[in-house]
């Protein structure tokens, strides 16, 4: 029998801090002033939004990543920006589910995003509302990753197969980090709960077809190797650098 040690979901989600930057979620009013919600980011940009600080948050983020990484083509930056946001969302939800036994409601209308910042200053939750730990799939995959994938496919024609591969890889990475933290801090209950939750999450067709269920190796490539100096990731579908044009994802 595993004893699960839970604490209440506090207004500042302080228990997530020791897990690392990708797990931290700021709450309350963003320090940088008004920021768009992720619901606005996923929606089609409105002409009347041109006076906003970030009239099109996704385009801003993709351009920022393109410039900072010297990406030779936009879809590389799209993929990397997407995987980073997916990792943030999975990490927050899984971290809360395993430490609190609850998940904060990450409704896209409540979650504000600073596309010019990195973790943990990029996401701010307007209001902390508790949901059961079993809501992780609804909160992250259905609530965020599905509309985000639709928006990126519509704007950049990037393959849904690549995007769900990113989502699966990000989920596996969050579980590995939770496992490392749990074992280093004598919290095997956290590691066990993280693996159990991930097993149920990977059962969904969006994710079960994205990674090999036994090795968690991707069935698509995130395109990182196309960056100057880039190489293959540890879970890449390729065994060696592909020939130009071989990664039709």
Task: Please give the structural blueprint.
Elements: E1 26-27, H1 38-42, H2 57-69, H3 74-99, E2 102-104, E3 111-113, E4 123-125, E5 130-132, H4 136-156, H5 160-184, H6 188-201, H7 205-208
Parallel strand pairs: 1-4
Antiparallel strand pairs: 2-5, 3-4
Walk me through the structure:
This protein is mostly helical. The chain is 43% helix and 6% strand. The protein contains 7 helices and 5 strands, in the order βαααββββαααα. The strands form 2 sheets. A 3-stranded mixed beta sheet has the order 1-4-3. A two-stranded antiparallel sheet has the order 2-5. The chain is globular and about 50 Å long.
Summarize the biggest pleated sheet.
3 strands, mixed
> How are helices and strands ordered from N to C?
EHHHEEEEHHHH
> How many DSSP helices?
7
Main sheet strand line-up: 1-4-3
The low-confidence parts are none
* Estimated share of beta-strand residues: 5-15%
Mean pLDDT metric: 91
Tell me, briefly, the overall form.
globular
Q: How many angstroms does the end-to-end distance come to?
A: 44 Å
Helix and strand content put the structural class at: mainly alpha
Q: What's the total count of β strands? A: 5
Helix content: 40-55%
Radius of gyration: 18 Å
